[in-house]
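FW: tagging you since you asked about this chain on Friday. Here's the raw sequence from the shared folder, copied in full. Didn't touch anything.
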Amino acid sequence: MQNETTDNQTQPVNDSSLTSRNSLENLGELFDAMAKVQNGLKPVQKRGKSHHGNYATLDDILDGPGRAYNKAGFSVLQLPQLKEGYVHMTTVIGYKNGSTVKSTMSMPCDVSNPQKIGSVMTYLRRYSLAAMLGLASETDDDANSAVPSVTGRVSRPSMKSARRVPANQL
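HL: got it, structure written out here
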């Protein structure tokens, strides 16, 4: 599902949906089975290293929790698509009773650079799969790394001294 705009530019796709081949009862079975797997999972190993810290690699997710889900009757498909400067990754988790959970995430990318495409695809695969399996695989920094940092220490002047500071120096 693509978001529509008036100027027909491609926008990122962030779409999630649930489907069931037979009934809501089957969907209930899927969630019950997911809860049982999640209850028995050990913390995800974080063997990847970056300047932001350690993180769970795609292999860490697939080798640990992924195998536990497979043993319980789940399968995973991840379907990439390149379109107008975006990499779209649709992740589908299917359960043995025919129910599925699907989510699509997108990121802008220089699609003329194969290394960047591969990097974005792996990133989207890792994050979407971890989210859909209910895994806490990253250190939660409360979105601090997503916002520009302020260099230097910012201090507020007292109300008394604030009156004496010219507005262009605040």
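FW: Residues 1-10, 154-167 have pLDDT under 50 and may be disordered.
HL: agreed, and Strands lie at 15-19, 48-50, 53-55, 74-83, 86-95, 100-108.
FW: great, closing this out.
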